[in-house]
Hints:
By secondary structure, this protein is α+β, with helices and mostly antiparallel strands. Helices cover 25% and strands 41% of the residues. The protein has 3 helices and 8 strands; from the N terminus they run H-E-E-H-E-H-E-E-E-E-E. The protein has helices at residues 3-22, 58-72, 100-105; strands at 31-40, 43-51, 84-89, 110-119, 122-132, 136-143, 146-153, 157-162. The strands form 2 sheets. It has a 5-stranded antiparallel sheet. Strands 1-2-3 form a 3-stranded mixed sheet.
Amino acid sequence: xxxxxxxxxxxxxxxxxxxxxxxxxxxxxxxxxxxxxxxxxxxxxxxxxxxxxxxxxxxxxxxxxxxxxxxxxxxxxxxxxxxxxxxxxxxxxxxxxxxxxxxxxxxxxxxxxxxxxxxxxxxxxxxxxxxxxxxxxxxxxxxxxxxxxxxxxxxxxxxxxxxxxx
Length: 166
């Protein structure tokens, strides 16, 4: 196994551990959207993306930081290889769509989808999510000047996120 593969597995395990501890305490009206861990410049950053109807405020992020920070210290053995910064923030306009439920809620929205394997010679599609039945995404996208529909198997999706239509 390559060093990069070992690092990726360690990162996934760390995110799973953090999700197990943090997920249950993020209650309505808040929603845990994503957890990311990685190097930003010279520093490691644990980003916990949280949202709620109408968006989150600076006070919300402060309150959630006070709730979450002590919980991270209870994870044993300590999964963090070195000192890190904790960042609680909004997912923003281009929010990741990581679960079938988040894709279902995004039906009718403009999204960006990256694929593991090309469909019609393309690995990236951007358009309106017309339907999602849990197995297949139906996307209405613009190919030059013509609207087309593509059916994308859910297991082919590498990444999906909301997109800003310009």
